[in-house]
Predict the 3D structure of the following.
Amino acid sequence: MPSINHIQEELTSLSQHVAQLPKSTTFAVPKDYFETFPERLMGAIHHEASGQDLIELSPLLKSLTHENPYTIPEGYFNNLKIEVPRNQAPVRGMYRFGTLVKYAAAACLAGIIATVFFVSKKENATQWATLSKEHETFHHTVSPDAIAMYLEEMDNLSAAETSENEQVDTGSNLLVDLNRETIKEILQEIPDKDISLYMDQDGLGDVYSLN
Amino acid sequence: MLPELDDIELVRLFKDTQQREKAFTSIVKKYQEKIYWQIRRIVITHQDADDVMQNVFIKAWNGLNNFREDAKLYTWIYRIAVNESLTYLEQQKRRSSISFDDVSESLENKMQSEKGFDENKAIWKLQLAIQQLPEKQRIVFNLRYFEEMPYEEMGIILDTSVGALKASYHHAVKKIEEYILNH
């Protein structure tokens, strides 16, 4: 049993305010209550045991005999048998047709999905194999020296060369250089017969006269 | 009245029909004050405490024949007292259809009508603070603070683990401190 000091220490550690409060009794008790209580209690116990409480509560009820007015068939309790019903659960087959169909459908669906996945994976693999094979062939047919030479030539191409080529290709520059005299020279080189034929074909003879 | 006998002897004498009444009177005289104050702190008024006291000892009289001697007698009576007190409050609550808060308020009102009540006095302030606690914390606090009961014994009475009782006491003390500081 813990000492009072131990309990007080516990309380002080929890709250010094509460620990400082006085523990004296606050409630008042009638004089001689504890002296008379055992006697009153024993009186109450005797009173209850003798059935006096029922006499006081209802004298009529107490005066009635404690006989049971109900009757039962003769030998009822001797012949009483309680049959506990067996819990017979309905028997169900392990494999039912409906369940099998469901499983079969699920298996088919899973098979289709797996096949599609497998085929697409195989096609991809084939494509990759072809590409890598081409790459390998290229490496085998073109020697590393040739590749190096090609790259070197590409680096040596000057910017001027590149821009010259670009000017030749540009149609707008060609139009700017064709002046009236150049055109006359070109037209003098072409026979008149051809020019008139061209003009007749395109319907330009009436509109323009170049000479 | 029998001379000072220990609980085991008193229970043995009780089982002898010739000695029963004397043995029981000795038991009542031995524990009545402790039991009374435990009940009184729960039900507050003397009238209610007296009713519960009678019920407790009548139950003890009827059950003592089946009492196992390996248990402590006073722990057993304490347990009956706590249960009877709570049952009494429950009955009052049912009769008047009031909630827990109203029961607490009702107990506070009963306390205020007690002789010598003075809310400014620390001892009454403590009682008011105890009334604010939930039922179980109130009982745990009363048993520990006033009765200085070990947690192990309290555990038998309240059928609760020592850890849970320590936690309840801790919460109760903190709530009481808060109440006292704020009022």
